[in-house]
Amino acid sequence: MATTTFKSLTDTTFDSVEGYRQAAEKADSPQLKQALAARGQQREQTLQQMNAELERQGDELVTKGTLSGEVHQMWQSITSMFGNSDDNVAERVEEGEDYLKGKFEKALESDQLEASERAIVQQCYDDICRGEQFGDMIEKQYD
Known about the structure:
Blueprint: H1 4-26, H2 30-56, H3 69-80, H4 86-109, H5 115-142
Protein name: PA2169 family four-helix-bundle protein
Region (Disordered): 25-45
InterPro entries: CHP02284 (IPR011971), DUF2383 (IPR019052), Ferritin-like (IPR012347)
């Protein structure tokens, strides 16, 4: 069975995939829609890596968003505040990416991951960092 920390990171990663999907729907600019969709596909690959580790451990795959708690509330607030402006979309994506990066960093700094989980989280962290850089870039571009 996966550790609580790894499962929580996987849940948050799923929520970010959904956040990107909703952000792409809310964006006005065709370029921003395309960039968000592409970034969401990258995040989907990260989720697949994490789900593969859950499956290896005999755990349930994460196939739907969290129903309660801080992660769900964060993404709900992000997606509900989009409005119709690209600058709002970009700002909320940037906030979500900062949150996710911080959560991954905290997990990597802790001793709460098994060795196999830590290896996957470290691999996925590269994508999370690219997502955070993407969030910063679009926030500056659409601000």
